[in-house]
Each structure stands twice: as C-alpha cells, then as structure tokens.
C-alpha cells in the first residue's frame, strides 16, 4: 500500500491581476483566502477558513499576491458590484442609536468618518451561504471603528449589517483571535448586527444560556442590558470597561462556555470546539492515552477493511473471530461506489450493532488513496446486497465514495511502467473535487452515527496524500494539508464527542520534511495512526526514521500512537518474527494499539490484498499482545 510521492501544481491555469486591493492595503486581521464548498468554488478551493495566518503574514511582508489568493479574488470579482451596492444601500438606512466614546455614534462614524475601500474577506460557513464571498468596509472617527459587512445568500439576496465599538475592535484583533482574526477566526462570519440583551427578558433564551457563565453574572445580577454579537461559531459579549469575551454555545448543557480570556489582554484559545468528551461507552483521550469508561484502553486491533460488505452472518463470524483473538477494535473501509450514502449508512448500522453486542469498537475509514475493487467469490458467498438480503454482489464496484471514481488515475514510473495495481487519488480531489461527493457523504454518515459509542474514531482517509500520475512529480502539499484541516474541523463540528484521525504512512509524505510543519499537521488529530510494513527478505522496516520522528512528535503533543497497519512482504513471517515486531511497537514506540493488515479469519474472506496474513496466522501473537496490554492497563 505504499507508493512514491508524485507532485504537480495545485492550480491548472494562470490568473490575471484581480481588481481587489493590494495586500498591503488590506486591514489587519482579514484574509483573502476562503473556504469554498459548492458550485464554481469547487474548482477553486484552496484553503479552509482559519488555517493560513502565516500565509497572511507572508503576503503582507512581500506585498505580492500568492496564486491561491489571486484565484480567490478572481472568483469574487463578479460579486463586487453587488456587494458595493449592498453596502451603499446600508449607508442610507437608519443605524441603531449606539453610543460610542467621544460623543459619537455608529451613524456619526459611517456618515462622516474616514472609510476604507471595500475588501473581500472570508466566505460564510453557514448552511446555504458556504460559497458566497464576504465583503466589508471599515469606518473610523475619533478612534472609533465600525465595520459594515455584506454577503449574498444563494437566492441572490444580499445581507448587510454593522459591527461597532469594542465588539468590532475585538473581532479585528489578531491577538485576541489567536492569529486568525475577522472572518477567518474561529468565530466565523457575523450572523447579525450588534444586539442588546436585557437580563429581565425571560422570553430571550440567551438569558437562560448565560446564567451559568461567571463572566457575565455581574451584568445579569445588576439587570444591566449589554451588547453582544452573534457569529457562526460563537458570540462576543461586551463585559463593560472595554472588555469583550468570546463564548460558544454548548448544545449538551444548553449554556454558553467561555472561549479563552477577555479582550484586550486575553485571547480565544480553545479553537471554538470542545475537547472530545466522554460519550458513555465511547473511547476518548485522557493524558495522552486512550480511556474507556475511566480506565486505560491500550488494545489490539484488526483491519477487516471489507467486512462491512459481507452478509450479516459472515460479518458476525469475522467479528467474533477477531474478538476471540483478543481484538477490541476493528478498522473498516466505508465507501462503496455502488451505494448511496444512506445505503452505506445502513450497512454501517448493521456492523455497529454487531460490534456493540460483542463489545468491539470500530475505526471507520472514510476514504482511501486507491480505487480498489471489491472482491467477490464465484458463488457470491459474501457481498450480499442491502443488509445482505438482495444477493447483490459488488463486481465492478470500488471502495470509493459514489461519484468520486473520476478523481483517480494510474500512477506510473518515469519509464512508463505501472507503479501500482490500482488507480490512485489525483490532485484535483484536494483542489476542490472532494467537496462534490466525499464531503457531503462524510457529513451524512458522521451526523447519523455521532452518538454511537461503538465508533472508536472517524478516519478522514487511508493514506490519501498527493500522488499524481508519475512517481517523479514534485508534491504540492498545500491542498493536502487544507483538505485535512477542513475535514477534521468538519467532523469535530458534527461529532464533538468522537475522535478523528487519519491513516498515515508517515507525516513527511503528507506535508514534507519540515519538522514544524509535521508537528502542526499531527496536531489536527486526536491520535496519530502510522503504517509500517517489513520486507522479510531484506529485514527492512519501511519509513523507520520518519516514523520514529512521528512517534516523538505525537508524544510531544500528548497524542496516543496507533500502529494502524502492519504486515510483512516477501513471504510468511514466523511466529517469532511477528512477536518481535509487536514487542518493538509496544516496548520501543509505546503504541496504544497494534492493528495487523488483512486480518480476515480465512484466506479470501473479506480481504484479498494480502491473503494469508489473517487472524488465523496472528491468532496466538495477538492474544499474547492483548494479554500484555491488559497487564499494562491494570498497572496504570
């Protein structure tokens, strides 16, 4: 499952100079790079919101427009005149009588103060407006700042509103928003103009939601009305004396939760998402290791990648065999190009039900690097149809999301020979293609099973990195990193009480050699899953040095490490070789889980990519390793 890296440019054509302001004129704290998800933006997607503060600093420093920024500006150009009309119309409307320091008001500032050009900022993340550019204009007078915003809904309606005073200053402060200010901050796009909360208004749900927040208790008890501003990802509240606090609504408790410390000295620190919480019966990360029901959960796993598409009785047989071998976590590949997201979800529901009955957890891999076929036997012994009843075999189906087959192509060596036996994912997938089918598929599946404790974690993808069509192409890591940033954030938003990871050969192959870049990439995941195979003929362990680095970085970040795949080339390993390998993983790397590849209980059942290395071969070694892990758990 390993291939050479293969790069190519992330954009397919050059762009002309846009009519947006030069970066040096852009107000601090706003980026011209945005999240794109539908329509024309699919081909232009380059950066997820809140991910490129370092890029912004580089733009300002060089006074040159990077190509990805230029493309975003080019995309926004057709919207500019409508946005300017919307902002101009806003200036003709009455403004709320909001007093500002120095005896001025919001209306004073926007009517007689200095105004900036109209800038393009980030895009909305609100459903129905994901792909719409956001324009804004700054107005200043006597040290007061007012910002007017405008964006288009999908029905063509333009929405404009203002933010003023301390709220505007906090929202524009790159320090307060942890280096990602304005529309690119964790708060996202403002969803309304400045609002006033009256603590005596019992009909306003905000009053109840704020009662559990000590930061606003004094305001509530004094019955003093105060200003606040809603955003897609949170809310800013004026505490008085120029201080502003960010909050996020916690749907589980029905209350607001403070995000960091107040402006101006403080900053938003928790990224807008709560940590993985303790969904009853689910696994979480505590103090750098897995925890289940308050106890350590160091364990043995098994890759049963296609078991989801066996008939229910054969699925049970495989899961039961894994359980009897000491396995506690099963990894599966979810997509099937022959089925809709709902049908795939129905299959997953059957498996999770069986796993729950056996006390197993399931790692769900949501995509893979190769367009690999499903394997069926002559007698259609497995691969039953919907819930195993229709007799549908999946001949000609691929382990990719329905509709995504076109994003895969053959990988060749420079001499023209094939490098792999399966087409592999292409750069177009990362450059916008994934939002067409893959992302909606993930959103539907994760939303459906977000409260199922049998889900060990959601795996964004299996070894899905830059490939291209030639092994000597130079990688473009930017779109790959942006893809993982977007999808980890999406899954955390939909399922905050479940873990998210990715199946990695090693981080170097995803973001390059720079150790800092690798550290930040691994920070995206709740735990680090690495893959390694051994060439028995030469005694060579793949990627040993890179994996040693990844393990060290994971420990530095407080992330558990999982050997998510391992196997042996060039022959069948002896029991001693398997045991030595597992002991190295446990004693040297200190991994929290080992997961052999191709772990079907019978050759040819569920898995034919590495026939013969199944649970029957690993049985005793897995049981011994599971016993060692159990002893470790009991001693902690």
Question: Please, could you describe this protein's structure?
Answer:
The strands form six sheets. An eight-stranded parallel β-barrel has the order 16-17-18-21-22-23-25-26, surrounded by six helices. Helix content is 29%, strand content 20%. Helix 8 packs across helix 9 and helix 9 packs parallel to helix 11.
Question: What labels describe this entry?
Answer:
single chain, 636 residues, eight-stranded parallel barrel, 17 helices
Helical fraction equals 25-40%
Q: Rough shape?
A: elongated
Number of continuous helical runs: 17
Q: Report the β-strand fraction as a percent range.
A: 15-25%
Report Rg.
26 Å
Mean pLDDT: 76
Low-confidence stretches: 1-64, 271-276, 376-393, 603-613
The spatial strand order of the largest sheet comes to 16-17-18-21-22-23-25-26
**C-alpha termini separation:** 36 Å
Main sheet summary: 8 strands, parallel, barrel
Total beta strands: 26
């Amino acid at each position: 499952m390993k291939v050479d890296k293969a790069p190519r440019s992330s954009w397919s054509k050059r762009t002309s100079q846009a009519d947006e302001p030069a970066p040096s004129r852009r107000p601090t704290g706003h980026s011209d790079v945005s999240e794109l998800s539908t329509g024309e933006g699919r081909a232009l997607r380059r950066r997820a919101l809140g991910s490129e503060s370092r890029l912004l600093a580089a733009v300002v420093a060089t006074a040159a427009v990077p190509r990805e920024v230029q493309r975003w500006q080019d995309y926004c150009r057709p919207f500019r005149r409508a946005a300017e009309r919307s902002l101009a119309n806003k200036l003709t409307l009455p403004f709320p009588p909001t007093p500002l320091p120095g005896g001025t008001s919001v209306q004073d500032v926007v009517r007689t103060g200095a105004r900036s050009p109209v800038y393009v900022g980030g895009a909305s993340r609100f459903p129905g407006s994901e792909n719409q550019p956001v324009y804004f204009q700054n107005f200043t007078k006597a040290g007061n700042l007012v910002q007017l915003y405008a964006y288009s809904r999908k029905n063509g309606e333009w929405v404009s509103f203002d933010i003023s005073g301390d709220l505007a200053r906090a929202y524009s402060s790159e320090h307060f928003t942890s280096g990602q200010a304005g529309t690119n901050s964790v708060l996202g796009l403002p969803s309304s103009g400045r609002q006033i909360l009256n603590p005596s208004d019992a009909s306003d749900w905000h009053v109840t939601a704020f009662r559990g927040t000590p930061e606003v208790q004094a305001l509530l008890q004094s019955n003093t009305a105060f200003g606040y501003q809603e955003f897609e990802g949170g809310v800013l509240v004026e505490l008085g004396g120029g201080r502003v606090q960010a909050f996020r609504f916690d749907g589980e408790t029905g209350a607001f939760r403070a995000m960091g410390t107040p402006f101006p000295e403080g900053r938003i620190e928790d990224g807008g998402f709560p940590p993985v919480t303790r969904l009853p019966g689910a696994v979480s990360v505590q103090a750098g290791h897995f925890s289940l029901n308050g106890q350590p959960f160091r364990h043995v796993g098994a890759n049963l990648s296609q078991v989801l598409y066996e008939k229910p009785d054969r699925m049970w047989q495989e899961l039961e065999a894994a359980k009897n071998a000491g396995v506690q976590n099963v990894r599966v590949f979810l997509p099937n190009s022959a089925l809709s997201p709902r049908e795939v979800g129905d299959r997953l529901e059957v498996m999770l039900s069986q796993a729950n009955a056996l006390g197993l957890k399931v790692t769900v891999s949501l995509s893979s690097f190769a367009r690999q076929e499903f394997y069926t036997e002559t007698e259609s012994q497995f691969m039953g149809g919907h819930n195993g009843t229709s007799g549908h075999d999946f001949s000609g189906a691929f382990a990719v999301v329905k509709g995504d087959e076109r994003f895969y192509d053959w990988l060749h060596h420079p001499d023209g020979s094939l490098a792999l036996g399966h087409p592999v994912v292409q750069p177009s997938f990362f450059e916008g293609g994934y939002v067409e089918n893959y992302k909606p598929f993930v959103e539907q599946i994760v939303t459906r099973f977000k409260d199922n404790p049998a889900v060990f974690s959601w795996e964004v993808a299996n070894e899905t990195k830059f490939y291209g069509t030639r092994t000597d192409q130079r990688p473009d890591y930017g779109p790959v990193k942006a893809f993982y940033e977007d999808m980890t954030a999406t899954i955390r938003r939909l399922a905050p009480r479940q873990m998210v990871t990715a199946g990695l050969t090693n981080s170097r192959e995803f973001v390059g050699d720079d150790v800092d870049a690798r550290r930040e990439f691994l920070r995206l995941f709740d735990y680090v899953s690495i893959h390694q195979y051994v060439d028995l003929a030469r005694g060579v362990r793949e990627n040993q040095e890179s994996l040693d680095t990844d393990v060290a970085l994971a420990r530095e970040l407080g992330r558990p490490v999982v050997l998510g795949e391992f196997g042996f080339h060039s022959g069948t390993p002896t029991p001693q070789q398997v045991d030595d390998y597992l002991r190295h993983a446990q004693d040297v790397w200190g991994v929290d889980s080992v997961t052999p590849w191709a772990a079907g209980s019978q050759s040819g059942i569920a898995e034919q990519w590495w026939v013969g290395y199944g649970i029957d071969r690993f049985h005793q070694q897995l049981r011994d390793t599971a016993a060692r892990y159990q002893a470790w758990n009991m001693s902690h």
